[in-house]
Design a protein that fits this description.
The complex is a heterotetramer, with two copies of chain A (about 325 residues) and two copies of chain B (about 325 residues). By secondary structure, chain A is an alpha/beta fold. Chain A folds into two domains: about 10-175, Thiamin diphosphate (ThDP)-binding fold, Pyr/PP domains (Rossmann fold); about 200-325, Rossmann fold (3-Layer(aba) Sandwich), CATH 3.40.50.920. Chain A contains 13 helices and 13 strands. Chain A has helices spanning about 10-15, 20-35, 55-60, 70-80, 95-100, 100-110, 140-145, 155-165, 215-225, 245-255, 270-280, 300-310, 315-325; strands at about 10, 40-45, 65, 85-90, 115-120, 150, 175, 200, 205-210, 230-235, 240, 255-265, 285-290. In chain A, the strands form two sheets. Chain A has a seven-stranded mixed sheet, with helices on both faces. In chain A, strands 8-10-9-12-13 form a five-stranded mixed sheet, with helices on both faces. In chain A, strand 9, helix 9 and strand 10 form a beta-alpha-beta unit. In chain A, helix 2 packs parallel to helix 8 and helix 4 packs parallel to helix 6. Chain A is globular and about 60 Å long. The N and C termini of chain A lie far apart (about 65 Å). Chain B is about 40% helix and about 10% strand. Chain B has about 325 residues and is of the alpha/beta class. Chain B has a single domain, classed as Rossmann fold, CATH 3.40.50.970. Chain B has eleven helices and six strands. Chain B has a five-stranded parallel sheet, with helices on both faces. The chains are: A alpha/beta (about 325), B alpha/beta (about 325). Chains in contact: A-B, A-C, A-D, B-C, B-D, C-D. Chains A and C meet through helix 5, helix 6, helix 7, helix 11 and strand 13 of A and helix 5, helix 6, helix 7, helix 11 and strand 13 of C. Strand 1 of chain A pairs antiparallel with strand 6 (about 295) of chain B, so a sheet runs across the interface. The complex binds thiamine diphosphate (2 copies) and magnesium ion (MG) (2 copies). One magnesium ion binds near residues 183, 213, 216 and 277 of chain D. One thiamine diphosphate (TPP) sits at the interface of chains B and A.
Chain lengths: ~325, ~325, ~325, ~325
């Protein structure tokens, strides 16, 4: 049958490697390699999901295909790094942060190798692919590991800036990325520094602290609330570790409520990190942690899940309004 | 269109499907391994039903693993309508044979079978992947009656099946445990941990079936991380190995009957089912991009046509 | 050479299987099996370290040796549980909670199988065997997983009681155990209930909340401080999840300072869990988290490490005194 | 006693040990594979030194892995004093051959070698396992000059070595990567992931050496989780396999020289070194309990005697 297929039909691999945040990954790595940085990249049978196929086409000799063996990939990345290369290895966040947890601790973090781990499709962004493919524990897990920097960029521009900044970052890094289709939050040249939160305002009533995929909806919710006359602020806590304690405490000093928002369990992730700082400093504000409430997430198309878990702009606005009432 | 395909598929099922094996619940070794023409026709019909339902369900989800389901259609059909000892309407029967999928992403082909067997209402299928539905891209034992184990993360299933086979031995139950694995799945180390353990424990009632369709997500298995010589690997890990044409129900069913009933074998058994990824739909058969995708209605119709025509062949 | 060896020479396997807390494991499982519970046990080439060799000798057909393949063991335990058996599988905490993190999440917790996971030699108790063998992240990691109960008994008696209680507990459980040589804290028949902390007193100045191996030294420290006229209390938080929030809040309501003590990183474990409750409820008390300060632990004989990290009675007392000053 | 053993061991080393291979830093294929009597004597002497130092260090720690170190003594000696391209006093030389230990618990045998090569002060050894010491039961690259990779969790090393070999290829450096694995380690799935990948990437400069001592922690490998046929497993995973007597320095050294220099081989190479766990001390040689333990001074003295006597044999 040689008739061409209907334009409405599509193959995932063709489509997804063009997803904005993810093509950012490949494009930025290509640019860095062109500038002379010793970048190598690896993928475990997901080069179309993470867009690294672009890098692989441009630098085939610097791309390593590991097949479906994530643990081997992570340990090998550490070995690669010992030779002076800077490996970026990527796979679904659930398989990276959970399946390779011990390899990340021992071979990457403990051996202090400058490996960059890209956990993509984190949170519930894999929708109906199943709870097995959701990663709502990865921030808690990665945060428990010493000497590992943990970052969840809000959009493609911030991701690109973070990758660029990583070239001069001495520690290994876990990057947490979503589906790669994040709406734009930042201009291309917004500065980025690990561990320095971006404060979009402090509210007298509520300051929202959001990370990664939750920043954009939280920003929309904040604007809607402000438009309704509420004093609400927002902090983009792109670096979960080391946490910008100053930013947290500044907000906790002025706001009545700190509302953390993350596409993650409310245990031990962003909410947990903020709780530690607040409790340790006897902060005045009350903390409310919004996210997945310590349960296994349901399946559904991603947007339906965001709605269900109130992680879309409307949901965050509802949660905040209930607190203001 | 989708509904039509679905209806047609279930019409094909006719009155409650008469199972060749299940009525003999208690007897093993009680049937010979040769299939009758009637049985062959039925299994082929069920494989077609599985393909058509796969298309229908993916048309609801708007994205799915057509080709991973198609390569395994005859295997699913043979297992559930010939090989396995199960009770219609009693998914949790304690003595049932167990089935696990390492390649859980082909669950779209399993759900129609479980519904057909009466394990849950067929109406559930219409909600495939919707919020609140138990049916998603991967099988979930906590939500779906008849699913013996959940999967999604490739590489765990043989270990879980090993546990079931060990459990059967400890509890002195004679059920068999069948585990379907992808060929890309051979790259996961845990598979080899389980393989080694199964051979050490002499779990002859554990049967692995490898869907050797030659492709994984990033492309050909040979280009991604080649796994040959596959027979030698399994033999070196202490397994009995058979090769079958995975699209020939006679070959599959006779092999599985034989392995199921052979009580002299001391080793676990591995079946390398040689298959074609996307089997039944010409434009999927060699195109790796179809590991995951979506067919617009016009192409869906063509796929259905081809599947029906293939059946007539 | 047939002369017998000097009595001063010893083999670990002979010695360790008699370690009190660990022989408890084996003895309790044997007793439960004798009472008719469908216990099976599994070990990954560490039956002398966890003492399961005792169970293996008594019930060879119910003991499964997995060799050095921990992940296979965990997934297989889940498979075993589906057949109606109640599997207890044990290995070093670092290999259980970290190496098998994803198998625990998917096959045990998500599949809701009543598997009991015994992570022994947790914390820094493996001393100079190396940081690879330390588990100072396991509580944070296990706590992030939904539907999993996380318990760290203080001594053998409590461990035995917890194992007994587990028979009627619907959820899978992660037990965190030390070296098996814990000093006695409780009588043999002290009652145990998952999620119900044991409050040994609330202090006006400080209430210490400790877990697992830190309970005994914290108790000693508490007594020493009390003897010095300080109003100090202690809560044994044996269940990390679900956390006894009431006990935390009751203490946070009366004490000026809550001091958490754990042989674990101060991020995301007991200290993290307590911080979440306190911050969320706007607790009055200040929180101080004592433990490993987000760094890779050194190696040394265990007692030297406890001294170094101030996790022995003296160290805990020093930390508390500094807070009182 | 302990100090004495240690002193004696270092005396044995005499003036800076003259290495058969290292002076030829830049030439590969430059020497033949046959050992001179002089080289044999030296390697045997270094193996004895390793065993004596193992005893001394464990007498400091008061517990340790004697037998895991003893089975590998000739392998360590051969690698560091014959096979590997390294520079004395320059542990981080970029073109050095790399060494990784999957069985990191035998590091007690490696540290004296690294000290002997001048990678760190010998005095460090006396602080073995003490607070603040870089030297513990497992090798730590972050703390110990000359350790190419940290280990402790069995099963990672071949993957890390794979990464180094890939790095060498990308950077167009010709160093070799040697990975020592335990036979119990074969049970870890990650080893097979790495094995498959190394063969796929044709990493002929990656050489795995399996210390086939027949025992693991819980007892005999055969009783715990048997791994035979081992050669067939590695061959089926695409490796070139050699068998050697792991206590015969001639056999080990000639094999490693050959594998190191063979530029025609397209596959990674695996050496199955047949060894005896506890080799050199009679009461350890067949007693599995000695995987981990402690020798009181009297038994230590007997062990030292036996080791010295064995050397004279
Ligand atoms: C541990 C893990 N890694 C990666 C994936 C993503 N993934 C889903 S399907 C697939 C390819 C599977 O190939 P194969 O096993 O050959 O199955 P097929 O669909 O060809 O039958 C991959 C890598 C996964 N589900 N689990
Ligand atoms: C992942 C992991 N599991 C368990 C252990 C504990 N352990 C230390 S040594 C050992 C046995 C190793 O046997 P083998 O590989 O044969 O080495 P040998 O000492 O015999 O050379 C075990 C299980 C470990 N270090 N790492
Ligand atoms: Mg395939
Ligand atoms: Mg061994």
């Amino acid at each position: 049958m040689n008739r061409p297929l209907d334009p409405g039909s599509w193959q995932y691999r063709e489509l997804n490697s063009r997803a904005p945040t993810l093509s950012t990954l490949s494009d930025t790595l290509i640019a860095l390699a062109e500038e002379g940085h010793p970048i190598v990249a690896g993928s475990a049978d997901l080069q179309y999901s993470n867009g690294l196929v672009g890098f692989a086409r441009r630098y085939p000799e610097r791309f390593i295909q590991f097949g479906i063996s994530e643990q081997n990939m992570v340990s090998a990345a550490a070995g690669l790094a010992t030779t002076g290369l800077m490996p970026f290895v990527a796979t679904f966040a659930s398989f990276l942060a959970l399946l390779c947890c011990e390899q990340i601790r021992m071979d990457v973090a403990y051996c202090a190798q400058p490996v960059r781990l890209i956990g993509h499709h984190a949170g519930i962004s894999l929708g109906f692919y199943g709870t097995s493919h959701h990663a709502t524990e990865d921030l808690a897990i990665m945060r428990s590991i010493a000497d590992l920097t943990v970052v969840a960029p809000a959009d493609g521009a911030q991701f690109a800036a973070a990758i660029r900044a990583s070239v001069h970052h001495p520690q290994p890094i876990y990057f947490r990325i979503g589906r790669g289709h994040d709406p734009v939050v930042y201009d291309q040249d917004t500065p980025f520094a690990f561990g320095e939160a971006i404060t979009h305002g402090i509210g007298d009533e509520i300051t929202i602290i959001a990370t990664g995929s939750s920043v954009h909806p939280a920003l929309e919710a904040t604007r809607a609330l402000q438009a309704g006359g509420k004093s609400v602020g927002l902090i983009d806590m792109h670096t979960i570790k080391p946490l910008d304690e100053k930013a947290v405490l500044a907000a906790a000093d002025r706001s009545r409520i700190i509302l953390t928002v993350e596409e993650h369990t409310i245990l031990g992730g962003l909410g947990g990190a903020v709780a530690e700082v607040m409790a340790e400093h006897g902060a005045r504000a009350r903390l409310v942690r919004h996210g997945i409430k310590d349960e296994f997430s349901l399946i559904a198309p991603p947007t339906h899940l965001y709605r269900h878990y109130r992680l879309d702009a409307q949901g965050i606005e509802e949660v905040a309004r209930a607190l203001l009432a | 269109m989708a509904a039509e395909a679905g209806d047609r598929a279930y019409e094909g099922a006719g009155p409650p499907f008469i199972l060749g094996y299940h009525p003999l619940e208690h007897g093993r070794n009680s049937m010979n391994t040769t299939l009758t023409q009637d049985e062959i026709t039925r299994l082929e019909e069920r494989a077609r039903f599985i393909r058509l339902e796969t298309i229908r369900l993916i048309s609801i989800a708007k994205v799915g693993h057509y080709s991973s389901a198609f390569s395994a259609a005859e295997i699913f059909a043979t297992l559930y309508y010939d090989t396995m000892r199960i009770r219609r309407d009693e998914p949790a029967w304690i003595d049932r044979d167990r089935f696990l999928m390492g390649k859980g992403h082909a669950a779209v082909a399993l759900f129609p079978v479980l519904a057909d067997l009466g394990f849950f209402p067929k109406a559930w299928l219409d909600q495939y992947t919707r919020l609140g539905s138990p049916l998603g891209d991967h099988p979930d034992m906590r939500k779906v009656p008849g699913v013996d184990f959940s999967s999604g993360s490739i590489g765990h299933a043989l270990s879980a099946g090993l546990g079931m086979a060990l459990g059967a031995r400890i509890l002195k139950r004679d059920f068999r445990t069948f585990v379907m694995l992808g060929d890309g799945e051979m790259q996961e180390g845990q598979v080899w941990e389980a393989a080694l353990a199964a051979a050490n424990h002499g779990l002859s009632r554990l049967i692995a079936i490898i869907d050797r369709n030659g492709f994984q997500l990033d492309g050909r298995v040979d280009d991604t991380m080649a796994i040959e010589p596959l027979r030698e690997k399994w033999e070196a890990f202490g397994w009995d190995v058979s090769d079958v044409d995975g699209h020939d129900v006679v070959s599959v069913a006779e092999c599985l009957r034989r392995l199921r009933d052979d009580e002299r074998r001391a080793k676990p058994a591995c079946v390398i089912a040689h298959t074609i990824k996307g089997k039944g739909v010409s434009y999927m058969e060699t195109e790796p991009g179809w590991h995951l995708g979506y067919l617009a209605p016009a192409d869906e119709a063509r796929a259905i046509e081809e599947i029906m025509a293939g059946a007539a062949r």
